[in-house]
């Protein structure tokens, strides 16, 4: 069944949303008074609700916040209620926007992030002040590292209390400045809607990223009749779409004269909707294609030219190609250290043509010989027009194919040992359609999901790349599910440790009856850490051996999801089929070989070309 | 693996029955490329690696005058480990705008990164690295022991200093000029015993009719600009 298996022998944090009011003896909560106005507005609203061709004018800051979201076309929002954000939630009550109440704010930010990845439009998450906002931070930082479009709205204590260490006050803009593309403290009820419009536009335009608007309760409660402006970026924000034609011309000449060219496609290709243009360019000129991890899906991995993913756990052939190329057309990548390994040995013979929309990525880590600042699709199209003859690279292509067979990803499936994880990933891939979406946690299972699933479409690989956030998988599956088409399966390939971090999200998936399938590759280990300990810490398994895990199938059942368990090879195909057939969420607890390791591997800062194929080569 | 789920009841890992890992030529059997890159990711001749030396330069930025900008800028510098020597901020002719003047010390690629990262901040309107002939001035207040008042006055005179406060025990001298001039003055004052110093950091404007706040030109921010730095450091004038 599997292409590569060479079968030898064969939190619900209910802390104090209520306490908000209790603790408000100090006078924080003026909602009681404010509520009267809201109530008045609501009854008028119900009367007029019959013929609502024209949206009814906003009357409060909160209504203008929600109106800004509606104007931007927002369909879903993910969040958790709480004192300071209550006015916004009250305005959402009358909105067409579907709010998904999450079990934890971290889940809300990951769900919004995944929604953004799959849909291409900013995902929206909401949280109250203080702990609500800080719980969002991991997901915001994750979106920031991966340039995912996301808008976070956080409640804040009333303006007069800011700076007093008020109940549930956190300096949210201060905390999130290093991990947002931009953030704003909304100080003016007449402008708060426009602040949200602008943040939405900024999250999406240029190099995408997370933005945040902090919403003090007095500002959202205040009266205003100011409709928000349409989503637009501020005047100080400039994006260069088209690259300098003279550099394009010289880059084109370089490509024509290359003898060992590769394309390196990063996440920016997918975000910039440039996958099709890059595919055409590579195929037209017969250039082998390597992807980064976020770039997975930009080029079909079943194509002959595909060398798949490079980097720390990239394929041997991708790392050979990247090390030996003489010309690298790098699009939408920031040359992260997990991709480059040691800078000294990264593509050391290559002239680098670097296409990126963010000028600051050019020559940040790797010097660009041909810096092309602009939108990926626009610039690759410019290159396509400028390149007249294909590079003469027959020998190089043959070499690449040779590496593909020399460093095949084939693995053993010994029957007398526990299930090998690669086999499970391939079985899941086989059982699903080409446009199925995969989300993951972080660890070995994530790497197997990269390596052994054959991705062919953009926006089907949803993972935490730059931040490496355990627990991303399940909430991301929730966000992805709502952004995906109905015929796209959503599979979360999770690790036991990662799943434990956010599995309270199962309550959301069950409540919302979301059709997702979670396959936990359960090694009862912090497997990735265990692998490093074996390689670099003399096998001392300090705090990496869970030694015990709850029974995830039963846990799933307790949540009201369907639970399955796999221990043997002959259960794999049928169980996966049964789990996928469920309409709501299902969880398969797959007990894999706890000793399984991820290879190839380039140790941190190592030479990509010297990847290890087994532990003794590290 | 059987279905036991008792804590700590897992059988110890046995030696694997098969070799773990993938097949293929071992690292030492593989061809290796001849080239190398330096720390900055620039391809180099491994024989003659030229290390990029840091240089000091002045970067002037025009920003929206709104709360948080200063912390955005200073946060950027600490987060990205850019070497910053001084930062001054003040109003401009436009009430809605402020100028932040930064003195930084980095190799060329670092200076290029600083400019690009500053431009990415949304409240930043323009960023410009000033030419080496730009006017640069700093003000220092130096409070010294006044045991030898006439000698203190003589030194202050030498540096065009102004006595702004004096009492039987101390004298406070104001000195304005280039960083180097102030360094030199402070060194000279040391002989009297310095009690306290406060320095403003460098302020700077471009010469003549040039506007210091030239709006950010997006094309300038490519590596081209980095490879032909026009702004080689030369000591500031001291007139
Ligand atoms: C939130 C968070 N904490 C800690 C880590 C460090 N870490 C990286 S991988 C890993 C192990 C993950 O275990 P599991 O989810 O079971 O995946 P496995 O490697 O076993 O497949 C850990 C702890 C992390 N990436 N994220
Ligand atoms: Mg595990």
UniProtKB/TrEMBL annotation, chain A:
Signal peptide span: none
Low complexity: compositionally biased ranges: 20-53
Record-annotated Thiamine pyrophosphate enzyme TPP-binding domain positions: 441-590
UniProt cofactor(s): thiamine diphosphate; Mg(2+)
Domain Thiamine pyrophosphate enzyme central, residue spans: 249-383
Acidic residues bias: start-end ranges: 226-236
Pathway the protein takes part in: Amino-acid biosynthesis; L-isoleucine biosynthesis; L-isoleucine from 2-oxobutanoate: step 1/4; Amino-acid biosynthesis; L-valine biosynthesis; L-valine from pyruvate: step 1/4
GO process annotations (BP): isoleucine biosynthetic process; L-valine biosynthetic process; sulfur compound biosynthetic process
Record's keyword terms, sorted: Amino-acid biosynthesis, Branched-chain amino acid biosynthesis, FAD, Flavoprotein, Magnesium, Metal-binding, Thiamine pyrophosphate, Transferase
Superkingdom in the source lineage: Archaea
UniProt remark on cofactor binding: Binds 1 thiamine pyrophosphate per subunit. Binds 1 Mg(2+) ion per subunit.
Disordered: region residues: 1-59, 207-236
NCBIfam families to which the protein is assigned, alphabetical: acolac_lg
Family membership noted in the UniProt record: Belongs to the TPP enzyme family.
Name this protein carries in UniProt: Acetolactate synthase
Automatic annotation (TrEMBL), chain B:
PROSITE patterns referenced in this protein's UniProt entry, alphabetically: ACT
Domain ACT: 58-132
Amino-acid biosynthesis listed as a keyword: yes
Residues in coiled coil: none
Bias (Low complexity): 211-227
Gene Ontology molecular-function annotations: acetolactate synthase activity; acetolactate synthase regulator activity
Keywords noted in UniProt: Amino-acid biosynthesis, Branched-chain amino acid biosynthesis
Stretches the record annotates as Disordered: 1-53, 201-239
Pfam families xref list: ACT_AHAS_ss (PF22629), ALS_ss_C (PF10369)
GO terms under biological process: isoleucine biosynthetic process; L-valine biosynthetic process
Residue ranges, compositional bias (Basic and acidic residues): 7-53
Pathway stated in the Swiss-Prot or TrEMBL entry: Amino-acid biosynthesis; L-valine biosynthesis; L-valine from pyruvate: step 1/4; Amino-acid biosynthesis; L-isoleucine biosynthesis; L-isoleucine from 2-oxobutanoate: step 1/4
Keyword Amino-acid biosynthesis on entry: yes
GO CC annotation: cytosol
Family: Belongs to the acetolactate synthase small subunit family.
Protein name (database record): Acetolactate synthase small subunit
Species this protein is from: Natrialba hulunbeirensis JCM 10989
